[in-house]
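Hi there, hope your week has been kind to you so far. Please have a think about how the structure follows from the sequence. I've dropped the whole record in just underneath, so have a look:

_____
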Amino acid sequence: MPNQKILYVTTEMYPYQEDTNMGSLVHKMALKMHSEGNDVRVFMPRFGQISERKFQLHEVIRLSGMNIIINDLDQPLIIKVASLPGERLQVYFIDNEEYFKRKQYYFDDEGNAFEDNNERAVFFARGVIETIKKLNWVPDVIHLNGWMSSLIPIYLKTYYKDDSYFKDTKIVLSVYNEDDIQLNQNTKEILEFDNISGLQSLDNPSFLNFVNDSMNYVDVIVKGNEFLEDKLEEAYGKADAEKSDYLNADSIAKVY
């Protein structure tokens, strides 16, 4: 299945995160599709634990400089890029001093969830969409991995619904057993600022509730784990999208 443009959006990828199911699977899928002659790109957050020196990240000036408005606040978007170590596969990192410089992923040193995890997710989702448009590169497939990426189909089908840029793009969502962390109650206000309402997750915002909502906005749902936790399994069963059980990297092409 060569000559497809495939975009992987993920919160985890080996070697930037080690020893995670999602990170390993995304790494293998991206390399497999790349080796078969597809135009593959990966987008992920530039979490503070990712060493710019070790992985040779550098800022892409022509893509940086946009501002993303989150709840009436301008946040500058910084785009960094690196080649996957030992491979000619580009990984783009969504960065922002306010949201991603900190060394922890989602919790502070006392174990409390960051108050702005919701803003970080919105910034990441919109940053990916705006950067792809600026690249003038239209993916045939967007494959989403991780709770932050689940906001992308929601935004594409609401906030960007009149934008024809992605009209022929198919969206695949892999669903993983992630921690279900509560989000700040101002999540509803933040999304309503972007004219997004009516989501079930807004009454009880959390990582997995957004994943559950996003299942209603994608073309195909794939199990990222062989067995999903009860809450995800129930939402997976109810979703109208085409579904697939767990697939390894060698088999994922059949979905595309």
About this structure: The two ends are 9 Å apart (CA to CA).
